[in-house]
């Protein structure tokens, strides 16, 4: 099995410093099931390619693991493990490229934080879920994908295709980010591991995925597959991934209204000022907004959508779905989905609400969300709230540049939010107004900022 990493960063030879591997040498790392070889196939100022080749000993695997007790008696002898990129490849990445994975570069430390154009080739990768799964795993992280699926047997084309792919991935990011993605997602594609999965794997997942996994649309799929579908371990990991770390002003409890409750009440009040009857809460989380909208008779139908299946289960529990009358159940629906992919279930709503959602997306993915919400779903009204970065200086425990939540990808000033909102409104034929949420400071503005988008067709009386 072979993994190559190519960059055209200038100078491309910087890759050798980041990997801590001299381009003139072939280097080796011993693994539990074989040996990993690291070498370069090309090195120049314009292009550099590092190769990681795994030589797995199939006989050694059988001797080490013994009989596995599977239904297929010869599986320990007849299997694909020595020939495909699997958890063995993740182990090789971790061992051969450990310094790069930990963000260390002795000779050129400034390179660690430099985003470079990378092309990765993996041959071959077993993907239980096909090309669709590859897209769900890698596209939200900004990768473009080329996947060549291999037939089961070229001699017998009628047998169809196998689950094995040669995959090419392209993206511009830091090497540390790239390696963390590969380390986790390669065994996720395979949906298997060659070793015992326990609590230590939860810690690995949280450590390697802390900067990107919480906001990934397929975070639950990734978590379950990485932990070999062990429910107890996966639930423990998801509790940490979904943990809210929002920083709030330090005030006496009796003097303050909870910040998030204040946002939700503001959104509810805006909705009540419209004639909206069908409401979509996009990124509903654990259903706090749904809970306060449900008693309002004006809202005839309410949809809650979230990427997290676990969050939707919490919504059902908190809203006591099992005790709802049939009439109430007809007024509410929960669906799992991502706002970066078109979803016909989001069409036909009077209003859509995104409360503290957009800042959890990487900026390059915002364009996809805009298209999904404003072009495809096309609600009459869209209400969006997001933190006001100018207000952060009022939090005594926040350092300069720190964000309110560990998963925030950005936090905008009022002018930055307005620039984005005005561009979206112009592009998709909406009008937009902005309002503060909470007490407004004359210098910094309010804690939260809100944009209310109204379709120009609605204003003109065409809807």
TrEMBL record:
Give the EC number(s) under which this enzyme is classified. Answer: 2.1.1.386
Going by the UniProt record, its keywords in alphabetical order are:
Magnesium, Metal-binding, Methyltransferase, RNA-binding, RNA-mediated gene silencing, S-adenosyl-L-methionine, Transferase
Q: Which CDD domains match?
A: AdoMet_MTases
The GO annotation for biological process reads: regulatory ncRNA-mediated gene silencing; RNA methylation
The residue ranges of the Hen1 N-terminal domain are: 1-241
Q: Where is the Methyltransferase type domain?
A: 281-373
Q: Which InterPro entries match?
A: 3'-RNA_MeTfrase_Hen1_bac, Hen1, Hen1_N, Hen1_N_sf, Methyltransf_12, SAM-dependent_MTases_sf
Cofactor dependence is on:
Mg(2+)
Catalytic activity reads: small RNA 3'-end nucleotide + S-adenosyl-L-methionine = small RNA 3'-end 2'-O-methylnucleotide + S-adenosyl-L-homocysteine + H(+)
Give the domain of life: Bacteria
Q: Name one GO molecular function term.
A: metal ion binding
Protein family per UniProt:
Belongs to the methyltransferase superfamily. HEN1 family.
Q: What is this protein called?
A: Small RNA 2'-O-methyltransferase
